[in-house]
What we know:
The complex is a heterotrimer.
Chain A: E1 2-6, E2 14-15, H1 21-24, H2 29-33, E3 36-39, E4 42-45, H3 46-49, E5 50-53, E6 59-63, E7 69-70, E8 80-84, E9 99-102, E10 118-121, E11 144-147, E12 163-170, E13 179-188, E14 198-203, E15 213-219, H4 222-232, E16 245-252, E17 260-267
Parallel strand pairs in A: 1-6, 2-7, 6-8, 8-9, 9-10, 10-11, 11-12, 12-13, 13-14, 14-17
Antiparallel strand pairs in A: 1-5, 2-3, 3-4, 15-16, 16-17
Chain B: E1 2-11, E2 16-26, E3 29-31, E4 40-43, E5 47-51, E6 53-58, H1 63-71, H2 73-78, E7 81-82, E8 91-92, H3 99-108, E9 111-119, H4 124-132, E10 138-144, H5 149-156, H6 160-174, E11 178-182, H7 186-190, H8 211-224, E12 231-234, H9 244-253, E13 259-261, E14 269-270, E15 278-279, H10 281-289, E16 294-297, E17 304-310, H11 313-323, E18 327-332, E19 336-345, H12 350-365, E20 372-373, H13 387-395, H14 397-405, H15 409-412, H16 426-441, E21 457-461, H17 466-471, E22 475-478, E23 481-485, E24 488-489, E25 498-501, H18 508-519, E26 538-541
Parallel strand pairs in B: 1-4, 1-5, 6-9, 9-10, 10-11, 11-12, 12-13, 13-16, 16-20, 25-26
Antiparallel strand pairs in B: 1-2, 2-3, 5-21, 7-8, 14-15, 17-19, 18-19, 21-22, 22-23, 23-24
Chain C: E1 3-7, H1 9-15, E2 18-22, H2 26-29, H3 33-36, E3 54-59, E4 71-74, H4 80-91, H5 98-102, H6 108-120, E5 123-128, H7 130-133, H8 139-152, E6 157-162, H9 169-180, E7 186-187, E8 194-195, H10 202-208, E9 214-217, H11 221-224, H12 227-235, E10 238-242, H13 247-251, E11 254-257, E12 267-270, E13 276-279, H14 290-302, H15 309-314
Parallel strand pairs in C: 2-3, 2-5, 3-4, 5-6, 9-10, 10-11
Antiparallel strand pairs in C: 7-8, 12-13
Bound molecules: zinc ion (ZN).
Amino acid sequence: MITLSLKEEPPVPLEAEALSPDVVATLRYDEICALPMFLGKRQCRVDDHFVVEGEASDELEIRGDAGRVKWIGRGMTRGRLRIVGNAGMHLGAYMKGGTIEVTGSAGDWAGAEMSGGLIRIGGNAGGQIGAAYRGSRTGMTDGTILIEGSAGLEVGMRMKRGTIAIKGSVKDFAGLEMKGGTLIVGGAELRTGAWMTRGTIVSLTRIPLLPTFAYSGTCNPTFLRLYARQLGTCGFSVPCDASAGAYLLYTGDTAVSDKGEILAWQPHAS
Amino acid sequence: MLRISGGRVYDPANGIQGEVKDICIADGRIVNDVQGAAVRTIPASGMVVFPGGVDVHTHVAGAALNFARGMTPENHRAAAKFIHSPLLRAGTGGITPTTFATGYLYAGMGYTTVNEAAVPILSARHTHEELRDTPIVDKSSCVLMANNEILLDLFEEGETERARDVLAWLIWAAKGYGVKAVNPGGVAAWKWGKDAKVLSDPVHGYGKVTPAIIIAQLAAIVDHLRLPHPLHIHCNNLGVPGNVSTTLETMRVLEGHRAHMAHLQFHAYGGDDWTTLRSEAAAVAEYFNAHPNLTADAGAILFGNSVTITADGPWQHLLYQLTGRKWGNLDVENETGCGIVPYVYKGSNVVNAVQWAVGLELLLLIDDPWRIFLTTDHPNGACFWRYPEVIHLLMDASFRRECLRKLPSRALKRIVLPDVDREYTLSEIATITSAGPARALGMPRKGHLGPGADADVTIYNESPDRGLMFRHPRYVLKGGEVVVEEGDIRKVVDGRELIVRPAYDENIEEYLRPLFEQYYTVAFENYPVEQERLEGADIRELG
Amino acid sequence: MGGKVTCTLGEVKNRADLIIYWGGNPADCHPLHFSRYTLNAKGKHVPQGRKGRTMVLVDVRETPSVRFSDIFLQVRPGKDFEVVTTLRALLKNRPVDEARVAETGLTLEQLQNLVDRMKNARFGVLFFGMGLTMTRGKHMNSAAVLTLVAELNAFTKFVSMPMRGHGNVTGADVVMRWTTGFPFGVNLSRGYPRFNPGEFSTIDVLVRGDNDAALILGADPGATMPQPAIDHLARIPTIVLDPKLTHTSRLARVHITTATTGISAPGTAYRMDEIPLPLKPILKSPYPTDEEVIRRIYEKVKVKPAWSPAAYAKVPCA
Ligand SMILES: [Zn+2]
């Protein structure tokens, strides 16, 4: 395993796409130390900011408050990346495989346009999780993002496949222009599922809806049981016991489609 | 002073086809000979020497292109990056490159002159600001006229002579070079959400004026004013199945006048709808070959990303509905409009496959290379920096056949390309990329290597891989300065603007001023582009 | 995916018979707008001027613009996105939830009536202001009206246009696009342009404290931005170029007085519809122009070594 301990919080954002298992997997200690990063406009080396230990491994651990370190794990395809502390923006963006685990929180754009792999965030996350970058047609196309805390705006924007599960609540525009995949949230503020054409949003609590979602009855879909079982192994509980309650099903967004689904859990009155 | 020594020279305008010959340069021009110790020699033996490329039809600057840039951040993100250096400005390449990158990319490909093909007069000041920020290449521009309502009103009233003065005044107001007609009458109709599909039908909102009248009148005026470049026309019904009849009719209307048919590929389709679309390149080429009053550019498409930008608003709305992707539209008061739709041409798509073939067919079936020029209607059919791919396809029939094999078989029945064996020679490539367009644009100092010509020279390492050869010139000289060496920009010079000042009756301003106050929202005084803004422009006064 | 369907103001003047203002107060904020370009202007195809046009105003409160309008729709604060999305559904005759529509402060009937008017207009225009673009939903509110208008073109001619703040905001946007490919929110620290609003837009950068210096040109963030952004400007070396002392000048380390563009300095201003207008100076100023100051600063910066690893070795990281 390679460990990188952040010496101190950088004064301005540190862009560090080199901090990825793919990059360090075959590198010797001194090569890892010399990898380029950018502190603002200045090019610098990994060992300017991190104490480096270990070499040649696709297991990489970053320690310290890396909340200002951007692009960690960009485009990674394999291996294991663990961040003991926080991670900055674009964590695991364009990721194709492997796993990322963050014990603290992550910034905006975590898992943006990812196509595979697993990202687990122990704390909160920012906005645009698993989203499409501005102007792109498609957000995440596969993979899984699990968040213990809450998340920000536009979570899962334009996602096409894959799963995002968030225990806490999300801000506005969760599942914006969603095209497929599954987004599970503890709760949500406004405009959830706006302009979605396909895909499923599951909320564990009742949420405010746009006028362009039509109520289509209650259900306890079987696909959700599968999800519940899978997510249960990761410590996420998704209710699906028909004796405990049912999901209210809404379809829309009728401004663009009727094939998107929002499921909101409603426990039976006890 | 400079001597390019020992290269094989292709200078079709001067009848030179691959002779080993020295090219001498002094004070930015080609001269017969240079002597003395101050002469730098570029050893070019084993290399091929061309006059610098001239692009007769491209969209590199102005409101429409800039609109497209703003609409497509995803393309810039994926594009080549231009990193700031002491020599170069930062920028992005890709489908709609930034202005500085545009200059570097054209020069890097050996092109030294470009004609921006669609300038609204109302925003011409903007176009010139962008062109000033487009380095190295020399630049001319064509002014949009075929939907100018002041002109259309004059045609309606039969006031041909006044229309002539107005048009001449407008060219000078825009500091333009030529006259462009886009979808004559159709853009004016688009202001009401309509189109002009039949050349002989009155334009929506008019009683008499038809697209045919607009075309004939504009062509006559351009000839009468003796503009160096003939009427530059984008026909009605661009991109529509069966539009070949409109195109042929347009060419018949143009008999007796000079005209340049823009991006002919988009206008040579048969069939009744998208499912029956087929190539009519052969019919177009047959008519065209027999009518020497016409020149054309190919407007070839290549598979991949593009963004379609055209003053043809109705077509763009149709394309938006077909693709369901983004759509930009910008109507310009009393003059023109433009539409923008990102598009991906796919080899697996039968329609796109036919389009791909039509561009090449026109280039191969039109037999006079002096009349058909290499373009992709950048960025509509493909980016200009992909021209070497087209050259490769033109020079290598076996490569073409290889590409044809990848097309869907349904497409093969609708094209004639598989039966065409012609291969372009180097001399013909020099003609369609430089000598021909320079002549059609009426630029006597461009497109050749005779004494007096601007010393715009491109030197290639000869290679059997024509794509590679034309992608990476060994040297590029602009105005006698080596701007590109071994694929790197070595020096950045400013390009000049080429402008025409036709003669007109000064009193025409008194006619225009009240119309302006009525119909426009800018002060008449603020309409013309100030000459002082165009530093170092090359202004040609016409008597 | 929507897009942007727009025109120059003369098209509105010459053709528009339905004019919608959304989230703005043109009567107060753009006093010449009605007479020059829109409501009261006599146009080529609207010779009767005001009588030939219908004006709809959509806003969260009554403003002086209300008395100019034929129809005033008062929407609840923060519900614009819901209203526009509902209009998009109605346009396609798709179902909407009547009770949730009513939460916007407008009834289904009012919205259906608006959609009918839009579809039946000969030439419609929707101007949207900061009441839409700067409230909850922000860029998505803009995207919503832009998309609605694009979709209306399946029925009739319809265009939209943002009404922006004062100054040459549009000009900055236009020039940024041709030099970097992006309109705003551009970062050049890696030597080439990158775009990510929210990450690189000025307010976000300042609020997070991501920058360690600031050069302010033609703006007064010290008067308009949120307090954390202002606090950060005061913390770092801030340089202001402005003809007068601004709020930002007071918290800046350096203020350089420059000539007023348009009065003592030439240039180009881009109107809200991106029409370039020449600025012709009428007075001489003892102060240098913004351009001259920037040019002189750049000449000094240019001789410094580039930020390569070698250069970095000599300059310790801050
Ligand atoms: Zn064109």
